[in-house]
Fold each of these.
Amino acid sequence: MAANDISTAEDLQSFISQQRSLISRTELKPFTRRTDSHGLIYLAIHFAGLGATGWLIYLSLGNWWLLVPAMFVHGVVLNQLFAPLHEVIHG
C-alpha cells in the first residue's frame, strides 16, 4: 500500500503497521535522538553560507555581471534554509 492510497482509518492503520514492520522503534531510536550539538552545527553552517554568499554580493557591487550570479547563489542558499525551518515548525 502506498501513502497516497490511504482513504480510510483502516487503511491508515494498515499503512502504519506496514511501516513499523520494516524497522522497530528500538532500532529507529538512535537515529531520531535529538541533540543540541547537531542543531548548533547546522546553525553555524547556515550562517557561514549566508555570510559567504553575502560577502560575494558585497564584492560584486558595481559589476552587474558578477552581481547577478552572486545574488542567484545567495537566493539559493536562502531558499535552502526553508526546509529546516519547516521541519522545526512541525517539532
Amino acid sequence: FIIVNSKNAEGKIFKFVTVIFTPLLIYGIIEYITGFNIFHNRSISVPIYEDWHVIDSFDRIRTSFPHPPGYSFALLIFLPLYLYYFMKKKEKENVYFYGFIILLFLINLLLTFTRITWIAVAIQLIFFLFLFRDKKMLRFALPLGIVLGIISVVMSSRIITRAVTVDESVLGRFDLFWYGFSIFKAYPVFGSGIGTFIELSVFKFGYTIAAHGDYMLMFAETGVFGGLGYLIILFSMLVFVVKKFKENYFAKVAFLMIISFMIYGITGNALANSHIFWGLLGIYNGIIVR
C-alpha cells in the first residue's frame, strides 16, 4: 500500500539496499581470500562428512549472515533487481556500476558453495535472457563470462568436488524428507503443528535440525490443507505476475524472484529467510498495481 500510494518510495528503498549490499559483496571476496569471518570471529572452513568422518572441507562465505545458505538466499532473491537495473539504466556510469554489482553478486554466490542456489541462479539467468532479450545484456555477457570463466578455471577442482560430492549433507536431506513424510502420514489433515518439525527431529536424529525442504515441511506441519494452500499461494503469485508481463517490467523481475524462491525451497530453508522474499514481493506488486 505504501508503494501504490507513493511514486518514489521504492527508489529510496532500493538505494538503501544497495548501500548495504555493496560493502557486503566486497567483503565476501575478502572473507574468502583471508579464510576468516570478522562478523562471527571464526574460520570460514566447513568440514564435509561421509560416514561421520571428515573427507574434505570448503571455505564458504557468509558475511554477516549466520550461515552460507542464508547469505546465498539473500543474494539469489535480490539478483533479479540488479539485472533489471543494469538493463534499464542508460548512462554509462550507471551501466558500469550495476554491471560491477552483478559481477560481485555472481562471485559471492559462487563462493557460498550452496548447490541449490547455483541451480536456481542458472535457471534465473536463462529466464532473464529469454524474458528481456536486451542487446546490452548480451554485450555484457561476454566480458562477464570471461571473468567468471577464469574464476571457474582457477577454482574448478573445488567447484567440481562440491557439485559431485554425495556427502552427509545430501544423504541427510533424504532422511529428512522421509521423516517429514512419516509425520505427514501420522497427521495427514492438519499436520503436527507449525514449528514442531525441528522439535520432533530430536526423537528421530537425537538433535534438532531444520527440515531443508519447504514443501515437505509445510505438508508435515500443516497437513494436506496447509501444504496445498502453500502451493496455491505460490502458483497464484506466478499467475498474477505472468499476466502483467506486458504492462510492467517489474512483473518479470517478480517472476524471476518467485521462480528462484520455489527452486531454493526444494532442498533449502527458504521459509526461514522468507521475510526478505515477502517484503521485496510486496514492493514489486505495489509497483505493478500502481
Amino acid sequence: MNKFITLLIIMFLCLSLSGCWNYHDLDQFYIAAGIAIDKAEDSNLLDVTVEVINSKETSLQPNIESQIVESEGVAVFDAVRKMIRISAKKLYFSHATTIIISEDVAKEGIIPILDWIARDQETRLNMGLFISKEKTAKELLTTQSLPTVIHSFELGRMITESKDYINVPIIRIYELINELAIPKMHSVLPTVEIVNINGKMTNRISGGAVFNKDKLIGYLVEDDILPYLFLKNQVEKGLLKVIDEKIPQDKIILEIFKSKTNIKPVFSGEDIKFDLNVSTSVNIAELDTSTKIDYLSEQGRKALRKTAEENLEADMQKVFKKVQEEFKIDIFGFGNQIRMKYPHMWKKIEKDWDSIFTELELNIK
C-alpha cells in the first residue's frame, strides 16, 4: 500500500513539472532581433531602435519580414517600455543577437547599456556588440542586407559562422563586462559601416573601436586587426598577405590553419619587456608571381617562410607602436598577464602601468 501511495505522489509531481514556466504565445509579443542606440536630436534622451521579426501566414508558407520600432527615453529600459505605445505588443528580447551603438553614445560611456543587459531577464549576455561608423546606429538596421531580411541576424552570423574568413575583434557582452572588471584592461569592439556593393547598400564589418574602459577614444583600421589579434593570441584562422619588398609584384596569400602566441613577461631589474613566440601553421592558398622563384621547392618555401615571418613581425610591431603612441593604453592585456602570473609584482606597478606600457618593448619571434 505504501508503495502504491508513493508511486501516486511521484506521478502527480511529474505532472506538475511538465511544460514551460515562462511560456508565451507568439501573437502576444514582437520578437526583437537587434537593437540600435543613438543620441536623440536636440535633447539628452536616448533614441532606441529595435528590429522586430514579423511573421505573416500565407497559403503557401510563413512570410518573415523585418520591421522597425523606435522610441526615446532617459535610458534604454525607459525607451523600450515606451515602445508598447507604438507596437501595442510587448517586445521579447530573448532572441536578440545584436546591439549597435552610435559613436556619440559610445564616447559618453556604455556602462549604463551593459547594466541594462545584465539586469534584464530576457536579454542574452552572449549578444554581439558593434560600434557604428555611420552617423547613427539605426541606419544599419534599415540598410538592405544581402543574404537575409533580418539585418541583426546577418551581423550575428558574420562573427559566428564567418569568423574563419574575416578578421574581427569578436567580443560578447559577458566578455566585455569581465574585461571592464580587470584593472588596466581595455577593450576593442568591432565596427560596422555601410558600403555600396553593385549599386546596393549593405552592412560591412571593418576595423575596431578602441575603448578606454567604457568610453570610445579612437579606431583601429582594418589592416590593424589581424596583427592586433596575433598580439592578443586570438587568431584561429584567416589569411596572411606576404609581400617581399624586393619583388613587390609577387602576391602571395597564406591560409592560416591554427596559431598560438605565447606571451611571457621578462623582468630585468626595474625594466619590463615581453617575449612573444608566435607559432602559426599555414598553407599556400594563392600564388600570383611573375618571378622565376619556385615557392613550392624546399628552398623556395624556406625563403617564403622567412619573408612571411618578417612581414608578420613588422605588422605586429607597427600596431603595437601605434597603440602606444596614439592611445597610450593597454588593449592587449599585457598588464593582465603580469597580474595573473606575478601578482606581487603587479601590486607594485599597477598604479604606474599606463606610463610603463608606453615605454614597453616587445621581442617577437
